[in-house]
Amino acid sequence: MARKQPEKGFTFSRDMIAVSEEVPAILREHRSKAWQAYQDLPFPTMKDEAWRRTSLSNINFGAIQLPNGNLSAAIPKKISGRILSENLLSKRSTALLSPAGVEINQSAQLKKIGVVFSSLVEAAEKHPELIAKVLGQIVSPLDGKFAAVTSAFAEQGVFIYVPKGVDVEDPIFGITFTPWENTAHFFQTLIYLEEGSSLTYIQESLSPEKQTHPSLAGENVEIFVGKNARLKIAELQTYGDMVWSFGHKKALVERDGYLEWKIGALGSSLSKHFITVDLIGQGAEGRVSGAFFADQKQHLSYNTLQRHLAPRTTSDLLFKGALAGESRSVWRGMIYVAPGARHIDGYQANRNLLLNRDARSDSIPGLEILNNDVRCTHGSTVGKIDQEQLFYLLSRGIPRKEAEQLIIQGFFDDIFSRFSIPEVGERLWQSIKSRLAID
Amino acid sequence: MSVLLIKNLHVNVENTEILRGVDLTIKTGEVHAIMGPNGTGKSTLAYALMGHPKYEIIQGEATLDGKDLLNLDPNERSELGLFLAFQYPVAVPGVSVANFLRTAINARRKAQDPDDKGISIPDFRKKLKEQLALLDMDETFAGRYLNDGFSGGEKKRVEILQMATLEPKFSILDETDSGLDIDALKIVADGINTISKKDQGILVITHYQRILNYIEPDFVHVMLNGRIVESGGPELALRLEAEGYEWLREKHTV
To answer: pLDDT digit string (tens) for A89-133?
Structure first.
């Protein structure tokens, strides 16, 4: 078979990019550059190393259009997530992002302490000098076809800037909503923490649960954690089963900075996400943990990269997945240690639980160490529910289904229990549990 | 009164016959001990009665108050009132002792009454606290992952804690004394004695007479080569302690 992708590629053209006079210059430039990158980059195929186990050949990108005014399907006024419930969101600072725009709900306190929490467009108008520090600086449109298409066509995004020394005590929440069938929704999340500041940001991406036609969500996430700053970010994904989700996400962590990045993924038909942590200053620390659950024919794929670019940096990554039905996960991890980056502590692990014999999980750790004096370890496992554990629980009168649920809950516990808001971990588990009940 | 009846039970493990016709009747209120050297099938009896899938029933029957156990899933055997204290309790990382016990209690209640809403949190806490005290266990135990990183003695105590919580009719204690120092053994034995006063039948499987100083058996059985070859009172255990099993091997030409 000839390569199918080119003729099934996007039908977008340059005149569809929002670069009119009203658009702030910084966004116009970024989009134009991204369009050029988009033109230059080939569509990924399974011949590309990073895409080897993820096929796009069944996806008809040509059927996907950009959001336009004719798609007047109303976006609900109030949106809460499946995990970020209305209850959790009430009285919080929130961003609701959809193709219709961004609605920011900001506490008075947040404004008072000088935090910028706004839509990308508003930030580009009012604070172009801040946007210039992040946009396209961390995730480059050249990082990949989907990074480029997202940069070129994302008309909106969320921007958070925390000034020097400011501790944002209450977490900020975000919801991204991808509502329309046969439509692409591109968006960006930009977070910049100045020296000595701290923030917790929790975001859920969702779409309507039941749809008959596919839709596409493309997101770029660019994060900067300044010297001695602390960011805790949780990204939850509860898309319906018709969504193709592509993401390029990257964080830079400066000297003695701390990043805690949690990922919880349940939905989508296919997900392909690149997650990179660059530890660029001495003493920087990055901790990434992910929990994913898939069933039916879902395909979830993560390429994670921990780059130690300075001495005495620490990274720790743990991805755990449970796979039911005929689902499939792919994890490719890499720890890179630059020449001269000494006294490194790096860890990566991926553990998978196959709940069905038709489920499959590929787990491929990798190390590239151009240095001595480092401690880097990795682990990867793919297993089934342990029959001795199951018998033990059954022997206590716990019925099989519940016993299996208990084991799966236990499998994920070290990730769920570390959410800074316990209710988020609890609700994430409840969402998985309800899916387990159906399978 | 309830009766656990085992008749002519033959069990294979990986196509090898381990139990070759075991007969045993236990009534609630009775304490039975099965002694015997390693590899004679004592633990096989325990696992086969509880329904471990590795143990294949070839022949014979086992009933609890006339209900066939052998065609039931392990959880259904538990519902009928059978309990096994494991020789090697299984670690279930990520599942706390409290979460596990509450799930087990609620499963039990639901089996008895499908409309049951489960034990309330305060009731559960109270019950757990009492039972932890009974076994001289710290309350922080409740939050630890089940058997994960527990010492040998801690694991055995948690087995008895489960026995106390589930209130079975019949408990099989598979080498519960192994790996316990004398202080831990006393605590565990005291716990068992307190629980079994509530009209339970107990089957103690052991190598050594030692535990029987604390849990006094009404009946002692000796298993050799997959069969019970000798039964008697507590004096039989003392004779085995003094003389070993050789005289029985000769008597039964094993």
So the answer is: 988 999 999 988 899 999 889 999 999 999 999 999 999 999 999
Per residue in A350-374, pLDDT tens?
999 999 999 999 999 999 998 888 8
Pair B52, B82: CB distance under 8 Å: no
- Give the start-to-end residue ranges of the domains of chain A: 16-281, 387-439
Residues B35, B220: contact at Cβ < 8 Å?
yes
Q: What is the CATH number of the domain that holds B180?
A: 3.40.50.300
- Looking at the domain assignment, is residue B222 inside a domain? yes
For residue A401, CA distances in Å to A350, A405, A433, B51 come to 25, 6, 11, 17
CB atoms within 10 A of CB A434: 11
* Helix B97-112 and helix B121-134, axial crossing angle in degrees, nearest 10: 120
Q: What is the pTM of this model?
A: 0.91
Q: Give the separation between CA A205 and CA A212, rounded to whole angstroms.
A: 19
With 50 as the cut, is the pLDDT of residue A6 above it? no
Q: What mean pLDDT, rounded, does chain B reach?
A: 93
- B53: contact with A, CB 8 A cutoff: yes
In the stretch 130-169 of chain A, residues with CB closer than 8 A to chain B read: none
- Which residues in A lie closer than 8 A to residue B103 (C-beta atoms)? 398, 402, 406
Query: Looking at the predicted structure, is the pLDDT value of residue A5 above 60?
Result: no
DSSP assignment letter at B109: H
Q: Which residue has the higher pLDDT, A263 or B179?
A: A263
Residue B155 lies in a domain: no
Residue B125 counted as domain residue: no
B89 close contact with A: CB closer than 8 A: yes
Say which of A400, A402, A410 has its CB closest to residue B94.
Answer: A410
Nearest Cα residue to A346 out of A303, A289, A307: A307
Q: B109: how many CB neighbours lie within 10 A of its CB?
A: 16
Question: pLDDT for A305-317, tens place per residue?
Answer: 999 999 999 999 9
CA-based nearest distance A400→chain B, Å: 8
- Two structure tokens written together for A152: 């070129």
Q: Which residues on A lie below 8 Å from B145 (Cβ)?
A: 410, 413
Q: What residue numbers bound the domain in which B224 lies?
A: 3-91+167-251
3-state class (DSSP) for residue A289: strand
Characterise B129 by phi-psi region: left (phi > 0), alpha (psi -120 to 50), beta (else). alpha
**Helix B152-166 crosses helix B97-112 at what angle (to 10 degrees)?**
20
Residue B123 lies in a domain: no
Is the minimum CB–CB distance between B108 and chain A shorter than 8 Å?
yes
Encode pLDDT of B74-107 as tens digits.
999 999 999 999 999 999 999 999 999 999 999 9
